[in-house]
Design a protein that fits this description.
The chain is mainly beta. Helices cover 4% and strands 51% of the residues. The N terminus is likely disordered.
Length: 171
């Protein structure tokens, strides 16, 4: 039994974006409710200021001078220092009916933010965008889990490839 019975996938979940974005909402199958939803991704860039993830106009994450800044309803809720920008940085966002949990980094604790009315349901159905102001750098392992039963890893089979989105990461 020297041969493996596990088939290796040829699908890639690492993307290099050049002034581009990925509209995650367009990839998700329609559900009457996406809450609770978990959005996880890892990114790496050499730029000092860049947009990361947005959920509608109410939730945005950006990288600003080695800090991941999380805004909710146009207020800074969390500003986390990144000590080595050359490494992959993992971010997990979990949206529930009344709050959002954000975790930045593999070993960090989550930070909870309470949501004022209205709920995030409409934004989740219409607009979850990675690189909402056009991102340049690499992103991998964009994984969406929702309604406690569905999980989706964005691969090259799901993301529309073009001249601004390529597979892999040069660095």
């Amino acid at each position: 039994m020297s041969k493996s019975l596990i088939l290796r996938s040829s699908l890639s979940s690492i993307f290099h974006l050049h002034n581009s974005s990925i509209n995650i909402s367009k990839i998700l199958p329609y559900r009457s409710s996406l809450i609770p939803i978990r959005i996880q991704y890892e990114f790496r860039t050499t730029l000092k200021q860049i947009s990361l993830l947005a959920i509608g106009k109410r939730f945005q994450q950006e990288l600003i001078n080695n800090r991941v800044v999380t805004n909710l309803d146009k207020k800074i809720m969390l500003s986390t220092f990144i000590d080595n920008q050359e490494q992959w940085i993992m971010i997990i966002i979990e949206v529930f009916h009344l709050w959002i949990d954000v975790r930045i980094g593999k070993n960090s604790m989550s930070q909870r933010f309470y949501i004022s009315a209205p709920s995030f349901e409409h934004e989740l159905q219409k607009e979850i965008v990675f690189g909402y102001k056009n991102y340049s750098g690499c992103v991998r392992q964009i994984e969406i889990s929702y309604s406690q039963a569905y999980s989706l890893l964005l691969t090259d089979q799901l993301v529309e490839m073009n001249e601004n989105i390529a597979l892999g990461c040069e660095r």
